[in-house]
Amino acid sequence: MAKSGAKAQEKVYVLLNGRIIGHISEPEAFANEIRQGRRNGVISGEVNISYDAKLNEIHINADRGRVRKPYIIVENSKSKFTKEIQDRLEKKEIDFNYLTRNGIVEFLDAEEEENALVAFTENDITDKTTHLEIDPAGIYGFSVNSSPFPENNAGPRVLTTANYLKQAQGLYASNFNVRYDSRAHLLFYPQKPMITTTAYESAGMAKRASGQNFIVASTTYYGYNMLDAIVVNKAAVDRGLGRSMFYKTYTDEERRYAGGQKDIFKIPAATSEGYLGEHAYSKLGEDGVIEPEFEVEEGDVLIGKTAPPRFLEENLGAGGIEAKTRDDSSVLKAGDKGVVDSAIFTETTGATRVVKVRIRSLKIPEVGDKFASRHGQKGVIALIVPEEDMPFTESGIIPDLLFNPEGTPSRMTQGHLLEMLGAKAVGLTGIRADGTPFAASGRKRMEEYEKVLDSHGYDKYGEETLYDGITGRPFKAKLFTGIAYYMKLYRMSSNLLQVRSRGSVQILTHQPTEGKARQGGLRFGEMERDVLVAYGASLLLKERMLDQSDKAQVYICTECGSTAYYDYAKHISICPICHSNKSVTMEISYAFKLLLDEIKSLHIDPSISISR
Length: 612
Prior knowledge:
CATH class of the largest domain: Mainly Beta
Oligomer: single chain
Structural class: alpha+beta
């Protein structure tokens, strides 16, 4: 504890799980003593300690929920994981727990990592090194470790890759046919990548593959694949490339209300409030639920349900005998269509009946669908080209996808090119390649692939002479071709399509509703307005921002400039402020009138000056 003569400013507070428990005067020695005790087994291996010199505090963490990572301990510039230990581990004489119990490996949390100097490899160990990475690939998480050659890509692309791997469609669960997920995507023909990594193989991800091996040519196609756009072979799509199924589940339950009333699953009676007409319920079974394998479109009733009236006094009919009901059926949302896959009845823990209806819809790749490689190279389909119009090689191979070559240098994804070259070599040898991060240098890997391609009569750099499918003439330059693992992402144009000419408006602002679910309008924002201002298209600006939005006619008092109202009994306009009946009508945005009303609520009296 603190020495008797220690000054107040030399005191270093000790916090256990964020709570102050005391103070000391020699923080670094104290922290080292705790760490040594942990390595000797005196203190639990779950405890982490860190010294923050800036805050002058020592933090000891032993609470649950911390992310911790194992590191090899380095003492006196030497790794404690020796060749002898490695041999015993390979012979299975010892296990990983032995390493943690005997002070060879320890787990650090985010705070203690701040006090550590971690070497990447044994060659990087210096006098100040405290720990060594178990494997260089350990600096990445699982998602990035599932992609090949990430160390050859720019940092932002590596992060993008991690996001796209989570969005990829594939076999997300082996029991998908009995699951009722709210939304689910299932890729029809998932394939194991031709280049895998140690993490990918160890986790058994090949059994849950989420992509396909595309033959890719790095070239433009009459300007259609500018920037992020890609061009796809129609014949490949017809053979099942990128084809998937989209499942969506609609759920409803029989709720209970005060007074013993409850909802009932059934075909609503014609006397029910909000009855949709006999044709709307034609696809429902006797139990009020739609039958499987019916084709449905937006507005079709899936689950018929009646509910009691909203107010208790409405419950009895005119004769006081028949109970009133209202139609509360579940209908297919706007923009949705498909086939009823299955329907089930189940119950909640409170014995309330629940119905779930699963709709499936086939998703064939179309213009606007998004694909991405494992190197953050995303792209949307700009054109689906008939097979006879696609470029082809001397041996008659037609690429599945045309990728713009400008996308590689601008995004610095050399790993993408390395995968294309490596997978091409794998296709010739039939032996899968290893793309684990830092397993070998990019140059060394390239040399291996070059030898394979060269021995099979191909250009060692992966370049081939391609012929234009439209003219039949060879391209002047050789084009880089290979195989890349591409993933189909969740965002498909058929799920995002939204269009509206007219429709409902918000009560508060009188402007169109927003969002696809409410059949809302598309937002015409500030930046869109600036474009019309720059072009001088004032009438188009007025039409978008006023006529087709929230145009309102209001009365403005000519005496005081306040908003007036029209008295239909006296057939005159009256100002509520000065009681004058002299006013003019003006066309303004209703949002502006709303602003005036809100200013009035702040006890500020706005007035509109009318030039005569």
